[in-house]
């Protein structure tokens, strides 16, 4: 088994391989945690369901039978908003709540593990500025990649929000900033009139 030096410490190839796989699994866990595309609708299914993620549901003119108001929901909704409480238990079954809990725990533990690996590997470089600069650059690149992924995933929704809110006939006021909370209100007046 070959050993390589990194700073003032010696590491085996297995440690390097395990650390690389842990870094890759952390990136995958973060992207899965943030992605709203866990399931997407099939082409031959009704268009009211668009896609679902771990924390968000995207609908198009969806009316739920348990909703007393029979409002057609259009847009992406966080599961825990007030608009979703009427049929939250139908959309989020108990097994899916367990998936959310274990995905959250998995994300926490992978971030803690990768942080421990970084501290263990780079502790031998404590006073060497070039390695600290390397860690800072790697952290910056990771943050930029994560922000780029979030921006890419939200791009369609943001354009849709702008179109709806800048339309002069849209009868509703802006939401409180939580998420897209739109209904098809054509032909109805807002409550403020």
Automatic annotation (TrEMBL):
Transmembrane helix among keywords: yes
Bilayer disposition of the protein: Multi-pass membrane protein
Subcellular localization, as worded in the UniProt entry: Membrane
Alphabetical list of InterPro entries matching this protein: PMP22/EMP/MP20/Claudin (IPR004031)
Keyword Transmembrane helix belongs to the record: yes
Protein keywords: Membrane, Transmembrane, Transmembrane helix
Residues spanning the membrane: 12-34, 98-123, 129-148
Protein origin, superkingdom: Eukaryota
Main location class: membrane
GO cellular component: membrane
Entries under PANTHER family matching the protein: EG:80H7.2 PROTEIN (PTHR21284)
Descriptive protein name: Uncharacterized protein
